[in-house]
Amino acid sequence: MSEAVTLPTRRDEAWRYADPDFLVENNAAVIGHWRTLQVPAGETRGEYTVHRSGATSEGMVDRLRVHVGKGGCFEAFKVITGGKYARVELEVTLEEGAHFEFGGVTIGGDAKTQEFVTLTKHDHPNATSNQTVRAVQWGKATGSFLGEIKVARHAQKTDAAQDFKGLLLEPGASANAVPQLEIFADDVKCAHGATVGQLDEAARFYMAARGLSQEQAQRLLVQAFVGDAFVELEDEKMREELLSATLEALENAAL
Amino acid sequence: MLKIKDLHATVGEADPKPILKGLSLEVQAGEVHAIMGPNGAGKSTLANVLGGKPGYDVTSGSVEFAGEDLFDLDPHERAGAGLFLGFQYPVEIPGVSNVQFLREALNAQRKYRGEEPLSGGEFLKLAKEKAALLKMDMEMLKRQVNVGFSGGEKKRAEMVQMGILDPKFAVLDETDSGLDIDALRIVGEGINSIMRDSGKGVLLITHYQRLLDVVKPDRVSILADGRIVQTGGPDLALRLEDEGYDAVMAEALA
Is A207's CB within 8 Å of B165's CB? Predict the structure, then answer.
């Protein structure tokens, strides 16, 4: 018998910034679908994705449930350039000594709603996780990162970090950070930080005084800003690909 | 080369405050012109207005640069036309390396002038040469723009940038502040070797004689209360050093 799937609403904490139109127009089976991935003990798996669904399409939801075996590693580096609603959700359960690495970038304008939602379950000791998310928005767009970390009672020596920064290129755009930490063990490190700001005016003028147009200066500053999300990605070619997809999305950005 | 005529400018958007009040000044090609003056006279405002910094409004007057109306050009176009603004407080740009920044800046300027871009190899060769001139380690240029640089290193980096960009005209705003004696000599000699040319000009804004001992100016002007109150030869700077602004200016206004 199939499990009854109910449609999420914005009353659910993890859906509070979701596009209500999208939730109404799509059926529960689409929204409720989860992909799954098992990472065998000691091995590494990765996902590297640019979510480009166009501005005219209603959007997309991609949900992935990952189980990382003992000493294994799952890394995800993802860029959301699409909309109108784009949601990438990761639920990662870590066994002893496993690692979860996540770098995410949302970048877009118009009225796009772009979000990363992660649930990291530290169910066993000595596991580590590191998440870096950057949001670059303009127009009336919103970029969000909802990151929940659960540390079980016996999951000692857990080391979990979350870092979010939002960059708003013009008034009207917004960014949300919702870190949620639920910690039942007493010997753990859990760090989270979130800031939202604008482009540095002083840096823009400095760059202009050296000959760079507003557009070039903005591109260089955004490149530096989102670069943090890809620092831990070792595959240089992949890093270049994700970065250029990110900067491509900037081309119709506000100046 | 640079002709400033009766320039009036204000700073601040909500409550504009007049800073430049009828400033006139001319710098010929081949000339180093020093501007000295007390705090609050408008020296940095002059530099910022010439560079086109947001927040500064020109209310009247004109500036002609190499035959063009400077105020017709956006800040990056002024750079492309050959104007270099040396910052009193060079800005840190985290995440952007000096090499990438300067290569993109130089090629943007070259494009503006209709010249071919430099390749990566050509650029590195040029950068290495200019860094050596200012006795700066090439490793510093691979680091992020001004991030973690000391005050002196930032000023030296400004001069390396000037060397690489090779402007026609440089406006240097208190390039000597924050420098120890050795760094001062290196920076001064850098200015000489990069900008001492019959086709180039320099507006050198400074508080002190010590930089002028190295970069011997052709002309010296005193800026006070938004105007040039006196212009003379290099001896004027020496007199200021000996007698102070008040005495020299009292005489000028008498």
Answer: no
